Amino acid sequence: MQTTHQTALETKHAVLDQRIADETHRPIPDSTVLAGLKKQKLRLKEEIVSL
Description:
Blueprint: H1 4-24, H2 31-50
Helix pairs in contact: 1-2
């Protein structure tokens, strides 16, 4: 069964995924921003898996 917390985490994960895609498609992607977004996304994924 999926909890509200898990659903919220998955939503945040999807938003980060979109932000990463947007950043990579910019003419000059900011590698610092990308690294930060990817770290956040990984933390969320780890938390989702632990549920």
